[in-house]
């Protein structure tokens, strides 16, 4: 086991650095990003109207956060699998899902003011690296399946 750790020390160091990066983004979210929904979703939000917000800083902050999380995720995926095809496909998926999620976020925010839970979950996919939790086992399974 010690031999495997020595062989993969670069991967382990990069994984720890990426996780630390995610922790920094999460730890400083109140100071780095304008997001009035951070406090809104900590309260009992089921029947309350959306808080007042400034659209440009909100969308800029969400885009920056999604970009940072996606970039860290892509770094981790590349060093875990060392496969450029997986990296390219992941980049495509992050771009596709980013456009889709931001479209949903805007639509819910402006046209469905009573869809608090839906906005909560769409926003959660934007601000958290949830796709990474899906992609790692999926790509691992795909690699194992293709070896057979």
What does it look like?
The protein is an all-alpha fold and 148 residues long. It has one domain. It contains 8 helices and no strands. The protein has helices at 2-7, 9-27, 29-32, 37-40, 55-81, 84-111, 116-127, 130-147. The protein is elongated, with a radius of gyration of 18 Å. It starts with a helix and ends with a helix.
List the helices and strands and how they pair.
Elements: H1 2-7, H2 9-27, H3 29-32, H4 37-40, H5 55-81, H6 84-111, H7 116-127, H8 130-147
Helix pairs in contact: 2-5, 5-6, 5-8, 6-7
Keywords:
single chain; mainly alpha; 0% strand; 148 residues; 80% helix
Per DSSP, the total helix count is 8
| Gap from first CA to last CA | 25 Å
Total discrete domains = 1
In percent, how much strand structure appears in the residues? under 5%
Uncertain segments of ≥5 residues (pLDDT<50)?
none
How many β-strand runs?
Answer: 0
What is the C-alpha radius of gyration, as a whole number of Å? 18 Å
Sheet with the most strands, sense and barrel status: none
Compute the average pLDDT.
93
What's the overall geometry?
A: elongated
* DSSP helix fraction: over 70%
Structural class per helix/strand content? mainly alpha
Order of helices and strands: HHHHHHHH
Summarize the structure.
This protein is mainly α and 148 residues long.
């Amino acid at each position: 086991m010690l031999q495997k750790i020595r062989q993969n020390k670069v991967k382990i160091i990069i994984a720890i650095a990426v996780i630390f990066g995610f922790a920094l983004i999460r730890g400083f979210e109140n100071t780095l990003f304008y997001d009035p929904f951070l406090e809104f979703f900590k309260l009992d939000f089921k029947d309350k109207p959306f808080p007042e917000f400034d659209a440009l800083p909100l969308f800029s902050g969400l885009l920056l956060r999604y970009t940072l999380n996606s970039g860290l995720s892509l770094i981790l995926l590349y060093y875990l699998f060392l496969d450029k095809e997986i990296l390219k496909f992941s980049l495509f998926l992050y771009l596709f899902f980013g456009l889709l999620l931001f479209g949903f976020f805007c639509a819910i925010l402006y046209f469905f003011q009573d869809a608090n839970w839906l906005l909560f979950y769409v926003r959660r996919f934007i601000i958290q690296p949830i796709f990474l939790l899906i992609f790692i086992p999926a790509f691992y399974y795909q690699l194992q399946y293709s070896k057979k």
